[in-house]
Amino acid sequence: MSDRRAKPAVLWALGALVALGLAVRFASLGVQSYHHDEVITVARVIPGGFGEMLHSVKASESNPPLYYVLAWGWAKAFGTGEVGMRSLSALLGAATVPVAFLAAREASSARAGLIAAAIVAVNPMLIWYSQEARSYALLVLLLALSLLFLLRALRTRAASDLAFWALASAGALCSHYFAGFAVALEAAWLLIALRSRWRAVLPAVAGIGLVALALLPLIAAQANPRHIGWIDGTPLFGRLLQTGVSFLAGETGHVIAEPLRVRFALVPAALAGLALLLLALRGSGRERRGALAPLAVGVAVAVLASALALAGKDYVVERNLLPALVPLAIVVAIGFSASGARRVGLVCATLLCAYWLGFAVHVARTPNLQRPDFRELAEVLGPPSVPRAIVSWKLAGDPLRFYLSEESGRVYRGAIPLREIDVVGKPVAKRQLVRLPRTFHQVERVRLERLTLIRYTSRSTREVPFRVLRELPTGFGSDAVIVDGLPAAGAGRP
Fold first, then answer.
1. Smallest Cα–Cα separation from 129: which of 352, 320, 269?
2. How far apart are CA 80 and CA 133, in angstroms?
3. Cβ–Cβ contacts within 10 Å for residue 459, how many?
4. Which of 315, 336, 369 is the last residue of a domain?
5. Which residues, in sequence order, are CB contacts of 269 under 8 Å at separation 6+?
6. 34: which DSSP letter?
7. Distance separating alpha carbons of residues 257 and 252, to the nearest angstrom
8. Are 342 and 463 contained in the same domain?
9. What does each C-alpha distance from 225 to 45, 228, 258, 309, 315 come to in angstroms?
10. Which of the residues 33, 90, 246, 353 could staple to 374 if both were Cys, CB 3.0 to 4.6 A apart?
């Protein structure tokens, strides 16, 4: 189905795209501070011994352990700083570029492969999660490999390709549970398409089944409504819309505590839609058939996850649907490379990649499109000179503690003796209703890009009830209260 002999020009072009993928990931790798989930990785899961790491994955995570196993060893070599820790994901993300080339070439042509590689190299969503110390870049890479060997197995019918498919699929399942949607569709496809080769297909599928069964006790142990209870707080349709926007423009919405920004996705959406139109109207029968398997995998992830959500197990959020992104990117690449519209397709593919590359630079230079800067915030807060409380929103709690002193701790109840209260939130009107003891007065207001720090101090130590602190206006909903500078800062923590 594909022109599998790589010409020197193709190899040079692929090499340039891999270099581009590395550059856009590593150039801004340390620009942003750690976000909430990353802090969980570097401060809670991997700091101890190997056994402690596995226990932490079981007790406090909702993902399988493969990424944490790799990250634990990586941290020993490169440390837990932003660049050192994220470099693992950046390498995995860049490694997906040549895999996307091979998969699209297998499905259609080397031209489609190069376009797919370019899309994967500069897609904002893939760049974002290649710069996050979590399992998503590993998930995307392994599922891209799984798709590649599915396509190869459908062509060659070889037991070796089926074995490689099973190995990649098992790794994906051990990286993120949502890989199961893509793997299940691929397994069904193989069982039907290669039914005459059932002696080779059944062991591969059975091996995947055994891995899934082995993960069931871990899934049961990790089941915790607190980990995912926030997800169904918004309508399913809104989260699917957020997914579409994120696939086209990266994480510019709720992940960075911002409203959905549809406008950034309009140009990519129009160009991707044109690619599908070119495939339907100007693509050959072979090209349309080649796009069928990647399209089915991408759609199956969204459909099966949504069906599960409607059945009462709602885990639909854009990063969990990442298994659909590379397969859909391959479909778009095949559309741009359609034999009946190559010049138009090439121009549109170039425009899409140029838009995304420019947007990546824009994000790296625009704090309002980045994770909240907890490093700078911690520097401005400084070490405590008196007993103080820092009031913020829930997902800010762990990053702030990570960048603050080791003595800082979360509180959840009681009355806290304080002389300083710092409120971190969205920019708000200077006149606002603040119910604090009369001895507290505002002494400072600092604007930190899209965050504002308001500092209140008292001449004497006063006990302030937790409920009063929690009701302070942040613009996010204040349910994270951190204290430090106390004789026992951790008092009140569960």
1. 320
2. 10
3. 9
4. 369
5. 244, 248
6. P
7. 9
8. no
9. 19, 6, 24, 14, 11
10. 33
Dmax of the chain from CA atoms?
A: 83
Same-domain status, 160 and 275? yes
Please say whether the beta carbons of 279 and 334 come within 8 A.
yes
Q: Point out the domain boundary residue: 334, 369, 404.
A: 369
Residue 145 in tokens = 């490999």
Burial grade of 446 (CB within 10 A; 0-12, 13-18, 19 or more):
middle
CA 465, CA 205: separation in Å to the nearest integer? 58
Q: Out of 19-23, 204-208, 346-350, 444-448, which region has the weakest mean confidence (pLDDT)?
A: 444-448
Encoding tokens for residue 242?
Answer: 């957020």
Q: Which of 132, 103, 133 is nearest to 120 (CA)?
A: 103
Mean pLDDT of 444-466: 92
Q: What is the per-residue pLDDT across 300-355, written as a single tens digit (0 to 9) for each?
A: 999 999 999 999 888 899 999 999 999 999 999 999 999 998 899 999 999 999 99
- The C-alpha atoms of residue 250 and residue 260 are separated, in whole angstroms, by 11
Q: Which residues form the domain of 50? A: 8-369
Tokens standing for residue 425: 């939130």
Q: Which two tokens stand for residue 430?
A: 């200077």
Amino acid letter for position 391:
V
Distance CA 357, CA 462 (A): 53
DSSP H or E segment with residue 419: strand 415-425
Q: CA 261, 267, 268: angle at the middle one, nearest 5?
A: 90
Q: Which two tokens stand for residue 174?
A: 């051990």
Q: Which two tokens stand for residue 229?
A: 């209870």
Dig out the tokens for 309 from the structure: 């959500």
Using CA atoms, how far apart are residues 409 and 400, in angstroms rounded to an integer?
Answer: 10
Tell me, yes or no, whether 351 and 245 share the same domain: yes
